[in-house]
Write a structure and sequence with these properties.
2-enoyl-CoA Hydratase, Chain A, domain 1, 42% helix, 558 residues, 6-stranded antiparallel β-sheet, globular, 17 helices, 23 strands, 6-stranded mixed β-sheet, Pdz3 Domain, alpha+beta
Amino acid sequence: MMFLKALKKVRSILVVIPLVLLSFMMSSYVDSYFEISKNLDIFITLFKELNLYYVDDTQPGDLVEKGIDGMLESLDPYTTFIPESDIEDYRFMTTGQYGGIGALIRKKDSLIVVAEPYEDFPAMKAGLLAGDIILEVNGKSTEGKSTSDISEVLKGQPQTEVKVKIQRFGEDKPQEVSIVREEIQIKSVPYSGMLNDEVGYVNLSSFTDNCSQDVKAAVEELKGKGMKKLILDLRGNPGGLLKEAVSLSNLFVPKGELIVSTKGKVQEWNKDYTATQQPLDKDMPLAVLVNSGSASASEIVSGVIQDLDRGVVIGQRSYGKGLVQTTRPLSYNSQLKVTTAKYYIPSGRCIQALDYSNRNEDGSVGKVPDSLITQYATKAGRPVFDGGGINPDVELEPRKLSEVAFNLGMKMLYFDYATEYRYKNPTIAATKDFRVSDEMYEDFTKWLEAKEFDYTTDSERMMEKLKEVAEEEKYFGRIEGEYTALLDKVKHNKVHDLDEFKDEVKDLLRGELISRYYHQKGRIEAMLEEDPEVNKALEILSDASEYKRILSDTSLKE
């Protein structure tokens, strides 16, 4: 009897526990629903009163959009509202496609200029050249307009016409050019080629639709030319579609391997992505190049290659975006791009570097603290870490341009010189043979004498800061003589700097000049020759023992 009473008591407890849990969950749900309902009601009534009684006329659409932006700003920069007017721009980001003329434009002082007509697209077919000044579009002046304003007008439905009035260097009168818009598909692989008899190179600029197939086609073509080793360049690649990162990884890792997992609040959306196809090549020596501009899908691919010890990652620490976005439809053809999960690569780590869920007291976002960074291991047991992007197996210092070389680019002086050079020289030698000779460089420096440009070096900035602090602390009077003497020594001299950093300036000028004749492909090919990451990759891929050593090194790097 006592046993039966005890059994009945246990049964009654087992019935009560789920009821208590259900009651708690319902209470939590009701509380949450009430909070949402209450605050929406407050927002609606506030919005109504504001529009009725505010002293000046309001723009309801602008007010709501600002309210939405303010709300989303408190989350992370990837959760964004996409109004109907911006849907085409979003489509371009994910597909690389848009209707237009196929040209990059930029602002130069108050002018809108063609920076680069894309190869084989309408702008180039119509004869537009880099350096052409756009005066009018469809009869309307570009004066006072931004590049986004003009870009919006140049875009449009394929097979429609747009009239552009341009002023070309060396020509007295403007000319009007009629351009028929086309569906523009920006190439995700702007360049691929052989760097020597054995090593091929593929540059991937973005993870848009079918980019993995573009890489596959490029690799197959290079293998047909004798490629036995590959450099995959993901530097500056901001990422894109998750499915393309999975498909691209699958080109190099065996079928069945885990590539990435996504985990978020909605558990039904959590998913493991594995390699579903036989790889294109699972054994070919591989080097992947990354830098601080490599983000999201780029980090998935480089992280997979690293975690599975499939290849050597070279360059600088990547950006550190381990968040996944999903697009949700809203009313009136608008959309919400919302962060729904974090992604985890094969070692189990998430590379997200910035902690948006725990902001600092001032609202700023901090990096994941060292105390929360966890060590993981690659398939071969090499130590890797979460919370800070992909740390390369071979880390190189980023290339830092001298102030003179950098500022010549910022002030578009390479660009302007190339415009004039192209007018005077209809052809140049092939990319691999063309060099900026000493005579040409001397011509460039003489040309610069008539141009207004100046810059401030880091040393000069530090000297100015020293003076400012010394004056605040009333010490400057004591050191003024020494300060002036030191400033004279560190103060830059443009003529001296153009000689001191001659090779650097020559290299950048060569790339700009080549782009006028051989376009984006030519520029990339030219810049590869003096590229430190590419040269390091060539060095490692040429040394089989060093390549294997890196992929089997289980020591913890300091």
